[in-house]
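Lecture 7 notes: from sequence to structure.
We start with the chain below.
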Amino acid sequence: MLMPRQKTPDLSLPTTDGAGFTLSAESNARGTIICFYRGLHCPLCATYLTELTRLLPEFAERGVGAVAVSSDGEDRARAMQEKVGGHGLRYAYDLPLATARDDWGLFISTSRGTTSIGIEEPALFAEPGLFLINPDQTLYYMSVQTMPFVRPHFRELLGAVDFAIANSYPARGEYTGDL
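Predicted structure tokens for the same chain:
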């Protein structure tokens, strides 16, 4: 189980820009957003990633980088990138489902066939998760979903980053002792 203020697993995946993503090699001054999304088949993911792409410059001003990650293959990841229309956001693909579940605590769903937008769901795929990882690769914030609905808003995350910077606010939820 991931714990705030504790080091996260490393994550190394190919990206649509060919540069690849390796969490331990990130050099953003204030950390990295990892936005795990369901895949090309999810219209809510496209809307969500559009919002993240729109706010990327504001996150960058604060020293926060971002990557969108799915278990989709390269072709579907590229198609999602094209659908969203922003090339500032990095798209990592081929996330192993065992890594999604066992290392990052994401929930795995089974296919329900063709979606409302006419795209076939993969046989298995990860549900969404949003993580803010500190530059030292410790967990600052996470939200894991069991469904595509009711996700954290990126504008609110931006406000939280501002608050954390202004107040040197630590990651919370770190207590693991007896209750």
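Points to note: Strands lie at 12-13, 21-22, 31-36, 64-69, 90-92, 108-110, 124-126, 129-133, 139-144. The radius of gyration is 16 Å.
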